[in-house]
């Protein structure tokens, strides 16, 4: 089963995304910040990352995306933001951007596609 790391500081959004992904058959790890997520990377293999950009702590979702791309070069990465646009961000080459509010069906479809690539 493909493991998705969901990183979102808003608890209701995070729980909604997690429920949706688990219902779609993904194994999900969660973190409330990029700093917390980095701690998980040492203990888990990540196949997919779904992260918000702006969160509390030292690291942003963009920093996390670069870290995941370095550690897991084959991982699919989706970065989301409600305030910034993709052109405002220095994302890893293979990362994809979704604007908030996003359609969870589109997120699941894209993660499924990324997990089969």
Q: What does this protein look like?
A:
This protein is an alpha/beta fold. It has one domain (3-116): Response regulator (Rossmann fold, 3-Layer(aba) Sandwich). 38% of the residues lie in helices and 21% in strands. The protein has helices at residues 11-23, 34-41, 61-71, 104-116; strands spanning 3-7, 27-31, 48-52, 76-81, 96-99. A five-stranded parallel sheet has the order 2-1-3-4-5, sandwiched between helices. Strand 1, helix 1 and strand 2 form a beta-alpha-beta unit. It starts with a strand and ends with a helix.
Brief characterization of the structure:
The protein has helices at residues 11-23, 34-41, 61-71, 104-116; strands at residues 3-7, 27-31, 48-52, 76-81, 96-99. Helix 2 runs parallel beside helix 3. It is built from four helices and five strands, in the order βαβαβαββα.
């Amino acid at each position: 089963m493909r493991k998705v790391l969901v990183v979102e500081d808003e608890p209701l959004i995070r729980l909604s995304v997690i429920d949706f992904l688990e219902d779609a058959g993904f194994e999900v790890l969660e973190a409330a910040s990029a700093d917390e997520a980095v701690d998980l990377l040492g203990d888990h293999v990540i196949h997919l990352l779904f992260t918000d950009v702006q969160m509390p702590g030292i690291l942003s979702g963009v920093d996390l995306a670069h870290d995941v791309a370095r550690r897991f070069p084959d991982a699919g990465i989706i970065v989301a933001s409600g305030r910034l646009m993709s052109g405002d961000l220095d994302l890893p080459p293979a990362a994809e951007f979704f604007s908030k509010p996003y359609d969870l069906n589109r997120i699941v479809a894209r993660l499924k596609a990324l997990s089969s690539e």
